[in-house]
Q: What sequence folds into this?
């Protein structure tokens, strides 16, 4: 719970109160000759009406397959708070939001290199390293530094290439969706008034030179808000976009923004209401309201077969997970996973193809191994040997897992 609250604090503090070093007068609007507005459709989305969760479910009933990847611990690769993990080709990219660095590992977790020298020189960061993404078309890593208002470009191995200035302030979320289109999210702020009408829209499209080519999704997420979680979610199905303070999830392409899922919390107390948020006058009031609402947070994941999310009920008590089986058109909610096999995780991070990627702490794995020794949990030899080698102060371990289909509940 402490780590979750710490994550929320970092997300809100870095994402919305640290708005870079430039004032709005420093920005110059740069756009292409043909700027288009993306149409938004709220029709035909899948409605997932969440019911009361099961108290518990056995891991063996939930998990189809899983494997662990220990992240090698060295003085130069020691990490604190994992914020984002990207698997691409032969590499694993791990953004440590606490250490303000990106560590690069191979697919077995062996440390290779690090990006994140503090400074204002070429390839160096301020303390506002917001997020990273991979451009699959040019095979580069892109990193957004909010303090410098720049996107820095690196090779897949972490070698610095060049940087480009951003003439607007964003909250870190961005994705490359075509060879000449970058999708970014901008929350309502006082820093992008130079955008004119486009400042009222949350989605901005840029070309490869970071000039504006399009915009979409008219939405007021309140200029007073101090809360900016990730809005572009990890998905194998393209870009999945979750506007802040909503339970709607949109598919975004270079042509349109279409509702894909709506999480229906009508069976629960005080579902979050974006219209109420828009009327509030103070950031603290907004956060107080959010934590007294029922909402979805950190981090929904979509694979080709499933949509996985976590619900935070009113006052954050009795949080639970839900996964929606696309083929079966059914969903299942549960509060707790009972470890009858040597599977465990602490925090969901991202996806790798059709695997969900999560972080598991060393203490959790040590407790799991002890249960295996006592005969309470069925453990694999290779997993027990891996856990035995871990030290208490080692980096967390990544666990990749696939879910079982829900047809067996019919």
A:
């Amino acid at each position: 719970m402490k780590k979750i609250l710490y994550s929320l604090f970092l997300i809100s503090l870095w994402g919305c109160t640290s708005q870079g070093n430039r004032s709005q007068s420093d920005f110059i609007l740069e756009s292409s000759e043909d700027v288009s507005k993306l149409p938004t459709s709220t029709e035909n989305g899948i409605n997932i009406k969440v019911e009361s969760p099961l108290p518990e479910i056995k891991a063996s009933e939930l998990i189809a397959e899983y494997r662990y990847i220990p992240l090698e611990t060295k003085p130069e690769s020691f990490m604190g708070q994992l914020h984002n993990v990207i698997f691409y080709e032969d590499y694993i990219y791990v953004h440590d939001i606490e250490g303000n660095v990106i560590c690069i590992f191979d697919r077995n977790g062996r440390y290779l290199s690090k990006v994140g020298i503090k400074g204002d020189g070429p390839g160096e960061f301020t303390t506002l390293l917001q997020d990273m993404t991979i451009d699959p078309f040019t095979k580069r890593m892109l990193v957004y530094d909010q303090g410098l208002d720049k996107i820095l470009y690196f090779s897949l191995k972490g070698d610095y290439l060049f940087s480009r200035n951003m003439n607007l302030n964003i909250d870190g979320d961005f994705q490359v969706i075509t060879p000449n289109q970058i999708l970014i999210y901008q929350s309502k702020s006082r820093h992008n008034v130079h955008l004119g009408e486009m400042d009222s829209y949350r989605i901005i499209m840029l070309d490869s030179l970071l000039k504006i080519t399009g915009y979409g999704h008219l939405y007021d997420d309140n200029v007073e808000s101090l809360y900016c979680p990730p809005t572009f979610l990890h998905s194998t199905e393209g870009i999945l976009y979750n506007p802040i303070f909503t339970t709607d999830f949109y598919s975004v392409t270079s042509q349109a923004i279409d509702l894909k899922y709506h999480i229906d919390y009508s069976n629960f107390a005080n579902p979050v209401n974006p219209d109420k948020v828009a009327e509030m006058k103070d950031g603290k009031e907004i956060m107080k309201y959010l934590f007294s609402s029922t909402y979805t947070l950190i981090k929904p994941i979509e694979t080709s077969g499933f949509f996985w999310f976590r619900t935070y009920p009113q006052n954050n008590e009795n949080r639970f997970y839900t996964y929606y089986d696309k083929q079966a058109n059914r969903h299942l909610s549960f509060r707790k996973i009972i470890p009858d096999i040597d599977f465990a995780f602490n925090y969901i991070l991202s996806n790798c193809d059709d695997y969900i990627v999560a972080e598991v702490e060393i203490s959790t794995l040590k407790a799991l191994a002890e249960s295996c020794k006592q005969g309470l949990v069925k453990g694999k030899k290779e997993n027990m040997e891996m856990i035995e080698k871990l030290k208490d102060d080692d980096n967390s371990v990544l666990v990749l897992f696939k879910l079982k289909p829900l047809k067996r509940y019919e």
